[in-house]
Amino acid sequence: MPAATPKSRQLAILLLLSYAILAVLSCIWIWQTKQSMQARPPMRVVDVARQIEMLNREVAAYVQELSSTNNIEKARPLWIRVVARQHTIEGLLQQFVDLESNFKVLELQIAQLRQMIEHDPKHLDQGALHELVEIIQEDMEIFASDVHRTMQEIVAEQTRQLHRYSSAVAWLSMAVFSIGFILLAVFLLLSRKNKQLVRLATEDGLTHLLNRRSAFLQGKLLCSMAQRNQQPLALALLDVDHFKQINDVYGHPAGDAALKMLAQILRTYARRDSDVLARIGGEEFMLIMPDTSEEVAEQLCKVLLNALADTKISDDYAFHITASMGLTISEQGMSFEQLYRLADKALYQAKAAGRNQLKLL
Q1: For a FRET experiment, which of 28, 190, 343, 357 has its CA 20 to 30 Å from that of 182?
Q2: Is the Cβ–Cβ distance between 176 and 22 less than 8 Å?
Q3: Where in this chain does the record put each GGDEF domain (predicted)?
């Protein structure tokens, strides 16, 4: 179980970073889109303004050519450019109804100019011609201002839409971020609860050693590995001497304190990560020592018994306790159940021999 905590923490940090990156990217995208839309007005409207300016110059060039040469055929290429420019502007104005109707008036005036010239090109009234040209140019300027105003209105509307969209995305980002934090909190809470449930299912509540079920599962696994690797597996059972008398004389809190002290001594001397410590009964404990020889296991058990006899229960309880131990070492082909029965038999012999001692089978 201790290894699950870093994994849970890493996953929680990953979730938090993911939501943070999502929020930051959303803000960057909104800002860039806003800058882009403010910097670039609608290109179609801009093209209309440019085309009107070019149409004005081409009409002026057409009239100037007629005035200087009085030759309609020589000025015809310029007129063709005027007509082509009109068609271009008509195509650009298809999405703008108001501008399209205003441009129709301008086209009628240009057509009137053409009709005046073609009616009698040799006796052309220059005064009337220039007056009509001035009217057309004034209307073009008015139309250009209409195009500019339309462009400003479109930009303003796009800006309003962008602000509304930005607000919506900002609220959405906040909601996503909040949901992320809520999910993160729920995930951490569930992970903690799951860890608590696993601990309740595998640990003894008083000593926080493994319980009987977990100890036997670990023992079967370690015994199988020892058989496969042809390594010794030592199993020791420990039982507190006269524990019922301790509860009767000093009370159950004293008995609990004695069991806690015994569990702490086991942790102190059985330090290897591979060692399995468990409380398998009221006052009965199990110690599984993988890859441990008979001599080493026997020496460790004697050290445990001596430390137990020399250690005071706690500041509140000054008495000492002793224990009996049974030890056995696995042989090739032996199951964990067989190993346990031998250790239990050795424990019984230690009790029968006067307690506070170790017996080996």
Answers
A1: 28
A2: yes
A3: 231-361
Whether 4 and 86 share a structural domain: yes
Rounded-to-integer distance, Cα 311 and Cα 323, Å: 12
| pLDDT for 34 | 60
Question: Is 162 found in the same domain as 227?
Answer: no
Instruction: State the residue for tokens 């004005």.
Output: 56
207 in a domain, yes or no? no
| Per-residue pLDDT reduced to its tens digit, 307-340 | 999 988 887 887 889 999 999 999 888 899 999 9
The closest of 155, 72, 143, 75 to 107, measured between CA atoms, is 143
Q: Which domain holds residue 196?
A: 1-202
Say which CATH number the domain at 243 has. 3.30.70.270
Point out the domain boundary residue: 178, 202, 226.
202
Cα–Cα distance between 216 and 222 in angstroms, integer? Answer: 10
224 shares a domain with 171:
no
CA 34 to chain centre: 27
Give 41-106 as a DSSP string. --HHHHHHHHHHHHHHHHHHHHHHHHHHH--TTTTHHHHHHHHHHHHHHHHHGGG-HHHHHHHHHH
Tokens of 285: 């404990």
Q: Which residue type sits at 357? A: Q
Q: How far apart are alpha carbons 182 and 22 in whole angstroms?
A: 16
pTM for the predicted model, two decimal places = 0.53
Could you tell me which residue, 10 or 53, shows the higher pLDDT? 53
Pairing of strands 233-240, 323-329: antiparallel
Cβ atoms of 321 and 216 closer than 8 Å: no
- Amino acid 331 reads E
Q: Which residues pair with 328 in a beta bridge?
A: 235
Question: Residue 45: which of 147, 176, 168 has the closest Cα?
Answer: 147
Asked if residue 150 and residue 33 are part of one domain, the reply reads yes
| Residues 271 and 172 grouped into a single domain | no
- Helix or strand run (H / E) with residue 327: strand 323-329
